Sequence to fold (253 residues):
Amino acid sequence: MSVLLLRLAGPLQSWGSAARFTRRTTENAPTKSGVIGLLAAAQGRRRDADLSDLAALEFGVRVDQPGARLRDFHTAHHSDTLKAMPLSERFYLADAVFVAGVSGEDRLVQRLYEALLEPVFLPYLGRRSCPPSRPVTIAEPLDAQLEDALREAPWEASPWYRKKYNTDFRRQGRPAPGEVRLNLLLESPPGTVPDMTLRDLPVSFDPRHRRYGLRGLRSAETRVPTEAGGQPSPPPPSHEPTALLTPVASRTD
Fold:
């Protein structure tokens, strides 16, 4: 079994599990359905494609930078009739950073890693209006247990957040600690009582009948170094999925 760690960082993220109609909420951390959707899009899977192999992956999240909740009012019009659609209320996480991980069969995990380096469809963080600000991939797949990989991964918080974290301690007259406490959200083992449940297990992304199952979660905590040895991991080789797009202004008939 292999583990693939993902860095989910961006100006805005939104991970809904019960968002419907005109109120579109977000969870405080990435959902399994949202991350599986990102991986399926990178592979070029259509919305009506079989998801059973991806849904069977073990999934976990570490909250490296919780971000702040943001509320927005959204307006839209039909493209053909220009008729206004109902005003909706949408929630986002601003300036958040997460380390998410999936674990599964070696060949599948390797294919997912390669797909993220050259995605067929652009990745986004829950909604199409939320692009990642940093490369999603952290490193090549690891030969490890998912929980161990999440506990041992370097802290991926933004430089300004790291500085603020240490400054807050100095303002209190205390030395900055050498480690930071981070929350983990992991899948509850079969046969155990979960700490919470979410309806974020993807069964089908088909827009005609989206379906999601319940998933049990357990919470945990880990400590990660803040100084040398705990710096964010270097990004993988540069890749720009939008490089082949032609700006409208430069198009010629």
Notes: DSSP finds five helices and eight strands in the chain. The mean pLDDT is 87.
